[in-house]
Amino acid sequence: MKLYYSPGACSLSPHIMLREAGLDFSIVKVDLMNKKTESGDNFLAISPKGQVPTLQLDNNQILTEVTAIIKYIADQKPEKNLIAPTGTMEHYHQIEWLSYISSELHQNFMPLFPIIATPEAYIAILMKKLMLRLTYIDSVLAKFPYITGANFTIADSYLFAVSQWVPRTKLDISELVHLNAYMDMIKQRPSVHDALKAEGLI
Length: 202
Ligand SMILES: N[C@@H](CCC(=O)N[C@@H](CS)C(=O)NCC(=O)O)C(=O)O
Hints:
- It contains eight helices and five strands, in the order E-H-E-E-H-E-E-H-H-H-H-H-H.
- It is of the alpha+beta class.
- It has two domains: 2-80 and 192-199, Glutaredoxin; 89-189, Up-down Bundle (Glutathione S-transferase Yfyf (Class Pi), Chain A, domain 2), CATH 1.20.1050.
- It has a five-stranded mixed beta sheet with strand order 3-2-1-4-5.
- Helix 1 (12-21) runs parallel beside helix 3 (66-76) and helix 4 (89-109) packs parallel to helix 6 (154-163).
- The longest helix has 22 residues, at 120-141.
- The protein is globular.
- The protein starts with a strand and ends with a helix.
- Residues 6, 9-10, 32, 50-53, 65-66, 102, 110 line the site of glutathione.
């Protein structure tokens, strides 16, 4: 399998999951501005949405969207328990988290990045929204070690990938002690350490 990624982007989530699952894969860096891969290929010809993460399967099929990709990865290795079995309530609560992280965090973070000329008034609205969401997450992490409960799941890789964007914004999460402790703990996982290293982030 081949994962198309950009350093520190949301593609970090499937990158972590590929390592957690212990699957064979390679990574290909994408210049998202110019839609070119590191070897100069036209990324739009590979993945017409022009976005990472894009996973190219061994049969050359293309899979996009963080939530679909990480669920696909987890399903390749059910014995690793990276997602609860379909049909259990745990499974639906994990999907509930994936949806929340995607729509309430991921998409609200994107306009805060300096490359996007977002009007200041809208930035203020997004920061307020994100603080409410992150404060809720902090309250959940006060009760459980991982975002869906007692075990690390695909939702944690996604939450980690988007929460590590906080330092690139003006958000102050110093009072969210549970979220900060969680981020430090997740960073210690070998899969996360190795993914960050492979992406040139540490
Ligand atoms: N809906 C997509 C969004 C993916 C996304 O936002 N990717 C960003 C990087 S974090 C990207 O590729 N940005 C470049 C672009 O949108 O042109 C998903 O959930 O995977």
